[in-house]
Amino acid sequence: MASRLFRTCLLAGLLALLSWPQSAALADNPPDPLFARLSSLWIDGGFDSTDSRSGHASLDLAIGESSRVRLGAGTDVIALGGDDLDAKSVRAGLTLGGLGNFDLGADYSYWGDPSEIVNQTGRLTVKAHLGDWDLAVIPEYRQYQMYTRPILGIRREVEFESTGWGAALDYWPSDRLHFRLNGSAYSYSKDVTRLDTARAQLVFSSKAFTLAAGLLDRYLNAEFGYHGEVIGLTLYHTRTVSAIDLSNVNFSGAVLTFYISRSVTVELEGGVGNSDRYADTSYGNLAMGLHW
Questions:
Q1: Domain assignment of residue 264, yes or no
Q2: What is the DSSP annotation of 87-149?
Q3: Contact between 44 and 4 (Cβ < 8 Å)
Q4: What's the pLDDT tens digit per position in 94-147?
Q5: What is the 8-class DSSP label of residue 194?
Q6: Which structural domain, as residue segments, surrounds residue 26?
Q7: What is the value of pTM for the model shown?
Q8: Domains contained in the chain, number
Q9: DSSP label at 151?
């Protein structure tokens, strides 16, 4: 999917989708077959039932027959009962194709509020093309900086890291149909379950604690896509497990794509999220793509 919807505030897992273990990560997301060799500019805006909202822009440049450069930036405003949290994001990725039956990709992302918590991610992708099947292996490294509440006017920085391994399997039975299954698992340099305590909520601000609640233990996503001449449809189901309290968050949604012309695409996305600890949330996203 080209769009980046904003799904917030089911806490454990929801915020992590914004910081990228999503199926549409820059280096491993399969392009729409109708635009695989074109460059694109995407602009999107999203919202959810908690009054949180987002806006993103991304540039996808085709280099030669099969290589691509991707750049993106955005903002996510998370509603916290009148004291909104404004998280910024920057993304950059490079995919080198035409290496026999393999593609190599690398990407970097920054997401967060520099006064509360910041997440920086580096990810590599090795993808093998096996006829109608694509198989990708995706190792990644994340670095976090988290800040305590001020004590005598001084805020202390807490740093920790995570490593993760992901995999994605794509199947194209035809140019019109696409199936995908992808997932990842993570480990941390510190015991992040200690954040699930009353003491942690006293040490860190509500903003920092809310952002940290998106730390993932594992993630699984399944998609089905149909790419028609005029309309496309993608259905997906995503499940995340929090690294802090092992709570689950599930998302089910659909993306309706309108191919207005060879140069213009419009996407409408909607879905619902539910958790075994938090209230249900509905969300929507509108995106427009320009292709050349």
A1: no
A2: EEEEEEEEEEEEETTEEEEEEEEEEEETTTEEEEEEEEEEEEEETTEEEEEEEEEEEEEEEBP
A3: yes
A4: 999 889 999 999 999 998 888 888 999 999 999 999 999 999 999 999 999 988
A5: G
A6: 14-251
A7: 0.85
A8: 1
A9: B
